[in-house]
Write the structure tokens for this entry.
Amino acid sequence: MKKVLSLSRNRPLNSKFKNNKVACPAKLQRSGGFTLLEILLVVGIISILAGIVIVAINPSKQLATVRNTERRSDIKQIDSAVTQYYIDNFHFPTSITTSLTEICDTGSVASTTTAVDGTACGSLVNLSSLVPNYIVAIPKDPQGAIAFLDKLITPAYAAVGGTGYQIMKSSSNKIITKAAKAELDAFIAIGTTTAATSTPEAEPETYTVTYNGNSNTGGTAPASQTKTEDVTLVLRTNSGSLVKTSYVFAGWNTLANGSGTTYAVGANFTTNATTTLYAKWTANPTYTVTFDANGGTGSMSTQSISEGSSANLTANSFTRTDYTFAGWATSAGGAVAYADQASYTMGGAGVILYAKWTAITHTVTFNANGGSGSMSAQTINQGSSANLTANSFTRANYTFAGWNTVAGGSGTSYANSASYTMGSSNVTLYAQWTAVPTYTVTYNGNGNTGGTVPTDTNTYVNGTTVTVASNTGTLVKTGHTFTGWNTLANGTGTDRATSTTFAMGGANVTLYAKWTVAGCGGPTVAACWSPAVSDKAWGPTGVITGVQGNTDGAANTTDLVAIAGNNYPAAEYCDGLDQGGHQDWYLPAKQQLIDGLTNQFVTPGGTVTGFVVGTGYWSSTERSDGPGNDARYAGYYYGAVNSYSNSKDGINLQTRCLR
């Protein structure tokens, strides 16, 4: 066609027609070629027909191709608008950064920071300043906002309200516009210079950033990264937990010896070159372990250990008398935290370790040494003193006299609960005993003319209770009556009635039979008892006289009569009685009254008369355990002789006097 046109329009006709004028029809005037409009129309029709055919053949692929065509057109519009904006304002829109970022979907709305759907642009690039002077509306990707991470240019952003197109400003002040959602593995991007020359660019170069552990002793280096030309790369962190003994990880460096360029973890990397980044290691600081004797003696040098490193502690060389070394503590009073020469890991500061000591202990064993009972062994620290455990052994008829290191007492002696200083070995202490003096009770017939005295074969220690024997050997003395025992032969000592008890003193005791001349003074002689009278009270209540003797009615009567200001009718009656030519009458004591009643009603052949069954008779003995209101009386009741107590003035009982 072009050739035809060229010939008909540019070459002359045959020479024979050179001077001839040929008249051509009007329609032949256009036979020289087609107009540009006609050509474009034909091409368009052919393209449409071809597209219909192709779409029919592979509809999904061809639709993706159509969308890619629209994307190329869209980013060209954006690129042209940004370029014109720069020409007019000498700078790019301020929201464009050096990181590839999605453009906010502001549509045809100018001067706003809010997307059409109401979502704030936030970190997205807001190009509303281009509308409407540089572009009618901000185009939007046919498939909407970005919803996935881009594999070629990073970082990519997925955000509600985005256009699906990205833009950035390179370090060389070049604008890169990209269709992030290009399909069919197409790379659709445009770069522009500051001179506003808009030309499509080839796909950017990519570089590999590799990480090296650089003599690490543990962990793994991060995976390598792909760096896109003029796109900032965020470096990896120490995600593989790289470690190196005695060193601290300090980031990345372009040289293994650390003299190159240093990058912190997560830093921006802009170098357009394949690079190996080496782990940068900083040697740990060194700190000291100081050893404190903590009561011991000797000296130890400090020990230096790098932070984070472990080493066995220096062997202990301190000593302490009577103690063994138990280990190290982090405080003077703390518990053992590290054994001798244990492994120690240094922290971020020096430390003081305090020696811990365990006292050497020995036991004191207590030996009863003839005694009985049990005592636990006592533990005492070597070189320390403690009071010995109080003795709990016993031994009949012996008193504890202390302890001795020898059973026979020839060693070192210690008093009960004395302070004891422990030596270097266990010890046994033997109880020492002192025999307790024992005493005897001997009975003496005191002039008896018949019978035998009782025999007490017991021995008694001071304070032991003695029971007085009865007249078991039927002692008799002509013309006399046996009335008990007395500590003196003449009867002026202490009376000891039969079957009563007393406490043994610190000497042997002899008890003498006590004899009362027959005919008077004895309970078996009727003539020695006065007839009974029944109108006598004992005395006033509420007054404790202290007249409580059970065996000596004469003494009791004398004491009662001598009390001034009080009236004791029964005692005063007997004291003043003059009968049968005798004035030595007295109110009998409780035991004397019981003896008289017993002879009357119990003892066969008894000679006392005048006592009536079921009748009470006053004694001169006051009740010893009462409140001061009662006195003792006796009588034959319910087939036996018994003593009782009654109110001193609440009742008038029978009164019989004895001499």
Observations:
- The chain has six domains: 60-200, 206-283, 286-359, 361-435, 439-517, 526-655.
- The radius of gyration is 68 Å.
- Helices lie at 2-10, 36-57, 59-89, 553-562, 569-575, 590-601.
- The first helix runs from residue 2 to 10.
